[in-house]
Design brief:
Distance between the termini: 47 Å
Number of strands: 11
Number of helices: 8
Structural class: alpha+beta
Shape: globular
Length: 294
């Protein structure tokens, strides 16, 4: 079994324990994202428009959610997914020949095991995140700012410890000679498994540790009858999309409803501008690291 399966209510309670603004209304647990704008606490909870909405006092600026059917939506979001049917007979032979060889190589050079105690590996995780942030910024932009793991290191450690302690969150590591070289964390809410994060050590990239993690996870999920869907983030840059597709993930459009499209688009524009500013700061940090590193 992958891990403890969480109900929507349990997941919402966990999010609330992490400091998120959560409330229950019209049969759905909602999270207030900023100001007075909401979405379901469990993002992949589909809601029929106008039959359920967050409390008005928490959603003065509007709300968004997935919908059960395309005709109920006014936009869509794309995610990399695997449906249950594609996993029913999953094995090494399900993968392309090149990917099978990479998985075999990964299994030969590293061991995959569930991380049961965080502390021995916490600093190695931080170093992995620093290396990956640097690599991403040089290529296509970092998902998480470098300063999150350097200047805000203590805050990152505390947040990671809180995440690790949550019930139903599975953490898997790829190890080589007692060293953590990659890790993956995920959770399952109702019948949906969400891959939250995958990180790998740049120095061990050629050993394909992430291939070992993905294959191990998909084997587990294929044997978990309660899981009907795996979500692995949104499409990103072409090389990462191709990597996921080799493991049977496919881009799927999810129908999505926003109560105030104009405001949503304005918010999207503001977020893009903030990301541009963040990207500039990360580039500056990378240059500083390079200078210090010689």
């Amino acid at each position: 079994m992958l891990s403890t399966v969480l109900t929507e209510a349990q997941f919402a309670a966990q999010q609330q324990s992490l400091g998120r603004a959560i409330h229950f209304h019209d049969g759905v647990w909602w999270e207030r994202l900023f100001g007075c704008y909401c979405q379901p606490a469990f993002f992949f909870r589909a809601v029929t428009p106008k039959l359920a909405r967050p409390a008005f006092r928490h959603s003065l600026l509007g709300y968004s959610h997935l919908t059960p059917a395309a005709h109920q939506a006014n936009r869509s979001l794309t995610f990399m997914t695997i449906q249950r049917k594609a996993l029913e007979s999953f094995s090494l032979s399900s993968l392309p020949s090149k990917k099978r060889n990479q998985v075999r190589k990964a299994q030969e050079h590293c061991q995959v095991a569930k991380i049961l105690d965080l502390e021995p590996w916490l600093e190695q995780m931080r170093c992995i995140n620093i290396a990956q942030s640097l690599r991403q910024q040089r290529a296509y932009g970092a998902e998480t700012p470098l300063h999150r793991f350097t200047k805000q290191a203590q805050e990152w450690r505390q947040d990671t410890r809180r995440q690790f302690m949550l019930e139903g969150r599975a953490w898997w590591g790829a190890f080589r000679t007692n060293r953590l070289i990659a890790y993956l964390r995920c959770h399952q809410v109702e019948d949906v498994c969400v891959i939250e994060q995958v990180r790998s050590d740049t120095d061990y990239h050629k050993l394909n540790p992430v291939d070992a993690l993905y294959f191990h996870l998909l084997q587990l999920v294929s044997a978990t009858e309660s899981c009907n869907l795996i979500i692995n983030g949104r499409p990103h840059h072409p090389s990462l999309n191709h990597f996921k597709q080799q493991f049977l993930f496919r881009p799927v459009e999810f129908p999505y409803y926003s109560s105030n499209l104009l405001l949503f688009r304005l918010g999207k524009f503001v977020r893009q501008q903030m990301r541009s500013i963040s990207s500039f700061k990360i580039t500056r940090d990378v240059r500083q690291v390079n200078v210090v590193g010689g």
